[in-house]
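Q: I have two molecules that I believe assemble together. Could you output structure tokens for the complex as a whole instead of separate predictions?
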Amino acid sequence: MQTLVGIAVSSGIGIGQAIIVSEKSIEIEKRHIDQAEIEKEQGRYISAIEAISKNIDEHLDQFIKATEEREIFEAHKMILADPEIQKGVFDLIATELYNLEYALKIYFDKTISFFKEMKNSFYAERADDYQDIYKRLINQLQNKSSLIIDEMDQDSIVLMKDCPPSMIAELIKKKVQGLVLVKGNKTSHAVILARGMSLPVVTGVQFYQKINNGDSLILDAEQGTVFVNPDEKLLNKYHEQKDKENEELANLKSISSLPTVTADGKVIQLMANIEMPEEMEIVNQNNADGIGLFRTEFLYMDRDTLPTENELFEFYKAVSEKAKEKPVIVRTIDVGGDKMAKWYPHLQEINPYLGCRGIRFSLTYPEIFKTQIRAILRAAEFGNLQIMFPLVSSVEEFRKAKNYVLECAAELQFKQEIRIGTMIEIPSAALIADQLAKESDFFSIGTNDLLQYTVAVDRNNETIAGLYNSYHPAFLKLIKMTAEAAIRNNIMIAVCGELAANESFIGLLLKFGVQELSVSTHSLLKTRRFISSINYQKLVDYPDVLADIGDSGKMKEAIDKMNMEIIERKEKV
Amino acid sequence: MIKKKIIVQNPLGLHARPSSLLVKLANQFRSDFYIRKDDMTINGKSIMGVMMLAAECMSEIELIIDGVDEEYLLQEVEKLFAERFGE
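A: Yes, here they are, computed for all two components at once.
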């Protein structure tokens, strides 16, 4: 038995056989065909170019991209439809009796080198187009990925270098046990989707040469380990754990269409945090009350240029439509700090967490901000979008940002009401919550940053990570103050940070008067189930737990004690 | 069959956009359409062919058109060149 260690990025247990999706290397087999096969080979060419063109059309329909990108795709389509290329390839098949793949290789090698040798650099660069088309044709013909998907079943553990997001849905359909990747991290597009669909994933595993197709595997995506050809004892242990997990999943699934209410009937708004339209399916399946935090950095990261207004608009519109009438709180761009975009003039900040991030970034680059606001406003006509500014530290910042929204609304002749809220994640904002509440339509507390800025601890710094303690009374006091100010001023108060899904704190948040909890998609059902065990009246009647406590240890004891009292331990049937 | 010599006059020559306009236009006609430049003759309905010509500004090319709608095709192609592909 061999053990490989990686990083658990989507939790769960998988037990099954390895299926390796190998990297597509272009290996062309040279084969001579019979006279009788000529037409078949030529027919394969026609089907391949039709399939690729169709794929390009779908891509063009789905994303109205910058014209430059569009032109590249249009050019590819013209090349695919080129009668000369078809004639050249068909001739090689008919006269040399080559198989299609080899005919393509001969034909495109010649074409690519012809362009490469041209003196004018503009024409020489066309070689890239032909290289791209050649690769696409070969991939289409070898059709490796779809063939391998056919082999997968509910006993498969899929291993690949890097997973395209589109593949996650296929894996879910095949009910595979889990996914092992060489590349990727918690924030990869595919991993986010996998997590929402409870597909166990471990990344950072160098499995090539260590795992073979058909090996028996245990994927422990709680710990981040992969066991290769485990012994029976270990298998039994994991089968037991897996059974429990399945039972838990089935149990949770049974409440997926229910509303979120406490044991004594108080309705709580349970919202989801998302990053992209594809997640809306899980949100709707689990009957969330809306989107409490739509992070919008996704379209800004991992690219060299800024997204266009139309690109943003299509993205927001997709979420807006899928949410139907439910509210969607769109947080404006929150780059800076640890989230640096490639197109951003990389200013060396000595202290990026105290630097130009969140709303400060938007106010520094108003053109970038206004492009986003216009896209949100245009998409707001297709649903119930609301706007939230991140990292607000003062009333002036909020006003300035809001003015940009009003300016864009006037330019677009946008007539609807749009609700504009403040994300409370800096102690200064919590301390002036009363004043901010007079100008905001709602508050949402970002607990991760609020804690970091309250205790002045970078939680990624292992030496002092112990000081990043959610039981710190100062942090909890700031949340309480914010909630009370919101209630005094009659505006909605939500929590969208990690604390909203933490069962030790949910009771306390509700006691503070928090009306909405916004959690990641995979925490929706667990949070609902936990809320259903709370007796809300007992919670309201319970004495103030924050009074007179200065240390985190005592705070924890007091909260644990309260939780014992307010939670009704009913046996789940 | 018609043959006609013509000078490429748009500043960048037959680069991406003009070439694709020309090919798209030619494909709407039934006539065969060839373009000769120096000692190279290519199919004017093929984007690859037109790009291979690398016809820069002020170069001379010959249009060779043969088919039922040859005159109409010539007329449209000449128009496109005269308008310098709208540039």
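A: One point stands out. The first strand of chain B starts at residue 2 and ends at 7.
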